[in-house]
Each structure stands twice: as structure tokens, then as C-alpha cells.
Fold this protein.
Amino acid sequence: MKKYTHAWLAFMAIKRLEDTSISGADRKYADSLINWFKSHKDCVVQGAWYPDAVIQDMATSHVLKITPSNDSAVKFKTLPATYMNYQLGKDSPVRNMSFTIEKGNNLPDRCDAIAHSVIDHLKLQEHEEKGSPVSPSDNQLALLLFMLSHYVADAHMPLHCDSRRFSEGINLHGYIEGKWEDMIELYYRIDRDNERFFYDPSGYPLKELSREQQYQSSLLKKVSDMLDERKFLISWGGGNQNVWDFMSAIGEHSYLLSYCFIPQQYTHTDVTLDNWQSLGSISFEDYSAAVLSDSIDSIARIWLRVWRRYMKWEKKQRAKVKSN
């Protein structure tokens, strides 16, 4: 995905947490994260883009390239049942086939490592005295969170999880991501000089009011409506226990979705600008809606669980101090 798409997804993940029904202590954790995010929102565009612009580990840590195999069938990991990707993937033509993952691809590991780093940095910040030279700053924490959102979103892009070479030929990979970026730039006001969005009164990206009527029939409005109607689940889904399991499941289902959109017999040499939207069993709109809506839910889920884990630790630490 491209620069402003990544940033928009991060904002929409926080909006998802703010708008959705979350009960009990989890509401408190979500509100704490929302408030913290809004104090650091000017860094989202740069932070969410650093993995491409600075880190540049695209060949290994942004992908989980999967290839169908003729070996015995394997059982795919489970996602939350609300995920559009999960629902569409049930009908993927490679659903009942085994698969192999290219060596060196470590996207789930990257997400898991950054998630742990966020928690570690928060703990260190709590432990150290204010002004300590080894205490992580809020800006460092923001950078880690925004970078994490980038890697999480990349796992939802089906062509990041399909070993076929769709960055060649017409570069379908870049072409599709460009279409999503064009939509963000069309419907939202961007302050390019300062690399950020203009904000609405609630602190979210400001829509381009002159295009509001056009927005109402857009893919982005469809994504928003889908999320409004979808229950937000905090669980990882199925037997997944942690970020690594969850991101592995995302990669597997992104692979399934890719083969729904571009059937197995096609390679980059067969896909053209004339036929790319009419090859598979799903439309480009459904494909895009699955990618964007599920990305938002996943970023929201992972951020909330990371924040919750830290806040539970913090509560225990403060109880220890009081008891002493």
C-alpha cells in the first residue's frame, strides 16, 4: 500500500475503537489509547511510511509469499468470523490444497517483534524517572505503533501473500495500490507541506466537502458502512494465541483471496489492463473492501491488545507500590 493509504488506515483503526461498542475494562483501555493517539496524530503519515521509506525491508518483512502445493491438504488458520477476507476465502480455488511459504519471509515475526517492542518501551517509560536518558520518548513509542500498523496492513494486501510475480508485467500490485491511494487523495484533504491530513473537529482526516456527494457512493463509504455493521471482536479468532498466530492467519487468507481474484492459471504475463478486473470469482470492489475493512479491524485489534497488556502490567506495578 502507499503512503496516505497507510496513514488513513491507522486513523480509521482508532476511529473504529472510538465508534464501536466495547464493554468493561476494555473500554477504558481503548479510550486511553485513543487519547494517546490523538496527541501524536501529526506523526502518523511519516511513521506509517518509514518501513518503505527508511527501513526498506520489503523483500522479507512486508510479505508472506505463498505457493500452492500438491502435497496433502493443510488446515488453514482461522480468522474472526466477521472478517470479509475469511468469508470470501472459503470459496478460494486453492482452499483445499497444501501450500509452501518462501524462505526468508518473516512478516508475522516482524509484527510480533514490534508489538513486543511497544510493550517493552511502555514498561521502560513507566519504570524510569522522568528525564532519564534511557527512557523512551512518546515520539519513539508513536513511531513504533505507526510502523506496526504498516506491517499489519501489508499482510492484508493479497499480492503480498501470493508468490506469483504481479509486480512485473503491468505491475498489477502497484496499479491496485495506486487506485486505493487515489481514492484517499480524492476524498480527504491532505497538508502535503507538513505530511499530514487536515483534521475534522474530532481529530480525524478531514473529508473534501466538495466531493461529499460523490463520496456517498464510493468504496471508502462502503468500507465505513461495513465496519459500522460489523461487531468488533477483540479475540484473535480460532486457535490463534498471539500476534504471530494472528498475522500468519491473515497472510494465509490474503493468499486465498488473491486466488479468488486471479485464478490459478494466470500469471503476470496473462494479466492486462483490459482483463484484470474480470478474471476471478469476486469483483475488485469486494476485493478492495475486504482488504481495507479487515486491515482497519486488525490494526485496531493489535493496537488495543498491546495497549491493554501494558495497562494491566501498569496496574499491577502500582498495586505493588501501594502495598509497600
